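Handoff note, outgoing to incoming analyst
You'll be picking up this chain. Sequence as last confirmed:
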Amino acid sequence: MEHNTDHAAQARPLSEFQAAVEARRIIDEAYRPVPAVTSYRDDSPVPATGSTPPVPQPDQRIVPAWAAGVAVASIGVGAGVTGLGCGAWLLLQGLSAVTLWGVLAVVAPFAGVAKVATAIGAAVSRTKAGTSQHVYQGTVIKNTAVTTHTRGLLSRTRNELRG
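Most recent structure output, in case you need it:
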């Protein structure tokens, strides 16, 4: 496309059709999609840093016995606490689902054992008791004296029993 540097040529108004074409071109250029770059690979060769090959450096760390013991103990405590937590969770899940029939099913064997134990105890106590006759010897004197004192504005009464 050839550009005219003459200011008079640029100052001429465009026709309506030319203005619409130019507006469409500017809008299309402004809203043209730009491909998004998501990665970049540098294919240039890596520069050499020296002629010596790499030297293996074996890892020989020494862990103190107390640190190993603490690690093993913490794993054991963590597993134990996890087990207790799971057991508590299961117990609470079971308790949250308690119904009358469930309680009766759990209590029925204990009630049966208690009933048998009571029957055995009653039978043993009857065999041990035998027959005994209460014989009272001496005179029986019933002497009860009541002394009443009434005092105060609201009539507080105090009774004394002497026998």
